[in-house]
Design goal:
The complex is a heterodimer of chains A (256) and B (295).
Chain A: H1 6-28, H2 45-51, H3 54-87, H4 91-105, H5 108-121, H6 128-152, H7 157-164, H8 169-198, H9 201-206, H10 214-223, H11 227-255
Helix pairs in contact in A: 2-11, 3-6, 3-8, 3-10, 4-6, 6-8, 7-8, 8-11
Chain B: H1 13-38, E1 41-43, E2 49-53, H2 56-59, H3 66-97, H4 100-115, H5 118-128, H6 134-141, H7 155-180, H8 184-191, H9 196-207, H10 209-224, H11 228-234, H12 241-251, H13 255-279, H14 285-294
Antiparallel strand pairs in B: 1-2
Helix pairs in contact in B: 3-7, 3-10, 4-7, 5-11, 7-10, 7-11, 7-14, 8-9, 10-13, 12-13
The chains are: A mainly alpha (256), B mainly alpha (295).
């Protein structure tokens, strides 16, 4: 049977479309010309400027504090949620299911504004705490889904076997359930971390004084500022993304 | 049941469920109700929320600029979704059919942009479409656009960048469905005399309809609520509902009005979701969508 080549060409064009702007961005981060209309020579000056930009480093520190904090909480909440959803069938779990899935289909801007209005209504000052709380809220659902996926092919008789051999419930959880679930939990945590580091919209709504994260800093640089430095920063972030994707693929492959 | 004696006894259900249920009830469900409540309050002159209940805030939604804004929001989102589906379906088809090494490479080629910072991807287009950029020069040199025109800051730029940012969200669920599709059905259709186009439309598309549905929701809903894309590449002619919400929140500091607009957006999002849910009996909208996208 002869297959049409048209889909091949289209798929190639789509992938080129996905990568073209990224390639332009990376190329421009090494371009001496400030506006990148043409190539005026190779330079690392934008990277040097980036490394001396103190505000970028402060923003990065904030980002990491928020990301580590919210990932830790979201991972615990997501794992217990997945276990509850997997093990029980009841009215409570129907509500639980809805609460976990609804945030996934709500546009970010609605999550952002509702959290802002909630904090304003409670007269809570906006700061690191409210920011971490907001990030946990949108990360929990993703961790839950990833861990649930891992639970789907979990062999529960192993837990029974451990208990038949004399382990009490907690020992069985620590020595059997947790190690087998670990790749799923790690993949969920990695996803939560990435989402937190990358989040702009929700952070924009609920951030207060002194909580400027990297995406907020990049946004204000795009709005009023220094394109070549953003090129350099974006290239570094892209390198980080490629590494993370590669690492998480390996994590999931080992899980199989 | 065996696990009745262990960690998951019936009476332990509450202990396992409480952390996430309480967290999401307090920080997701309750704030949603707060938005509804605040939409019925007036604004106080200091940027806060007034003390009295009123319908006036909702009434102010009937602004003469609203119909155009809503239409632009809907049209851009619908066009984004349609273009994404048209581009994503053949791509997913090729990905599902090619050899496993090439397939891994293609999945990676889609997943990396998917994971790349949203702001970085939008900024990349600002570089590409820059008035002094190579693309503009090339188009001017080919006399495709007049000199001194600008590619940025207009609705077409918003559409282009929306398609770009949403495309991976369309490709991945369709690919996940196409991967499970039995391609021998296409050969059977061809043996029975159907042409390539007819077997693609009549056999392949119905076979992956759940993936298509997920892809539609995963592009249409975020597009409706998009805010950064029109903000960064749109200019005044490309404003969408999300921008209006942000403007009321940060520029005018009129929080009740922002709440009323958010209710409008929530309704617009709810409608397609409910339609889709009543059509597909399975309640796994979120699971299918996010689960497939995550992988």
């Amino acid at each position: 049977m002869r297959r049409s080549r048209a889909p091949m060409w289209l798929a190639g064009a789509v992938l080129a479309f996905l990568w073209l702007p990224i390639a332009v961005l990376v190329a421009h981060s090494f371009n001496a010309s400030r506006f990148g209309g043409q190539w005026t020579g190779f330079t690392l000056v934008w990277y040097e400027r980036l490394f001396t930009a103190a505000d970028v480093w402060r923003a990065l520190a904030n980002t990491l504090v928020v990301a580590f904090g919210s990932t830790a909480i979201a991972t615990v909440l997501g794992t217990t949620a997945a276990l509850a959803l997997d093990r029980y069938r009841s009215r409570l779990q129907d509500v639980h299911h809805l609460l976990v899935h609804a945030p996934l289909v709500v546009p970010e801007i609605l999550l952002g504004i509702s959290l802002l209005l909630f904090f304003v209504a409670l007269r809570l000052p906006l700061g690191m705490t409210t920011l971490v709380a907001a990030h946990v809220t949108f990360c929990v659902s993703y961790v839950t889904l990833v861990v649930l996926g891992r639970l789907q092919d979990f062999d529960w008789t192993l837990l029974d076997a451990a208990q038949d051999l004399g382990a009490d419930g907690w020992t069985a959880a620590r020595r059997v359930l947790l190690p087998l679930l670990a790749p799923g939990i790690a993949a969920g945590a990695l996803l939560a971390f990435t989402l937190s580091v990358d989040d702009f919209v929700i952070t924009f709504f609920v951030s207060g004084p002194g909580t400027t994260t990297l995406p907020l800093r990049i946004y204000s640089m795009i709005k009023h500022g220094s394109p070549p430095i953003i090129n350099a920063l974006s290239t570094l972030l892209l390198a980080l993304t490629v590494t993370t994707v590669w690492f998480s693929q390996r994590l999931l492959k080992e899980a199989r | 049941m065996a696990e009745a004696r262990g960690l998951f006894r019936p009476r332990d259900e509450r202990a396992w469920s409480t952390p996430s249920v309480v967290w999401l009830a307090v920080l997701f469900a309750l704030p949603a109700l707060v938005v509804v409540a605040i939409a019925f309050r007036s604004a106080d002159p200091y940027g806060g929320i007034g003390a009295d209940w009123t319908l006036g805030t909702l009434g102010r939604l009937a602004d003469p600029t609203m119909p155009a804004l809503l239409w632009r929001t809907f049209a851009l989102s619908a066009a984004t979704t349609a273009i994404c589906l048209v581009l994503a379906t053949p791509t997913a088809y090729v990905m599902a059919r090619c050899s496993s090494r090439l397939r891994q490479l293609m999945v990676l080629a889609v997943v990396v942009p998917f994971w790349t910072s949203f702001l970085v991807r939008i900024f990349a287009w600002k570089v590409v479409l820059h008035p002094e950029g190579a693309l503009q020069r090339a188009l001017v040199a080919l006399h495709l656009v007049p000199e001194g025109s600008t590619l940025l800051y207009q609705p077409t730029a918003v559409l282009l960048v929306l398609v770009y940012t949403e495309l991976p969200f369309a490709i991945l669920p369709i690919y996940a469905a196409a991967e499970r599709f039995d391609f021998r059905l296409l050969e059977a259709a061809r043996d029975l005399g159907a042409g390539p186009v007819r077997s693609f439309l009549g056999v392949f598309l119905p076979g992956i309809r759940r993936g298509l549905l997920t892809a539609t929701l995963m592009t249409f809903i975020p597009a409706l609520g998009s805010y950064i894309v029109p903000d960064l590449v749109g200019g005044p002619g490309g404003e969408m509902l999300g921008n209006r919400i942000a403007q009321r929140t940060f520029v005018d500091r009129d929080l009740p009005q922002a709440a009323a607009l958010s209710m409008l957006l929530a309704l617009a999002v709810l409608l397609p979701s409910v339609l889709a849910l009543t059509r597909s009996r399975r309640r796994t909208l979120g699971t299918a969508g996010a689960g497939e996208a995550v992988r």
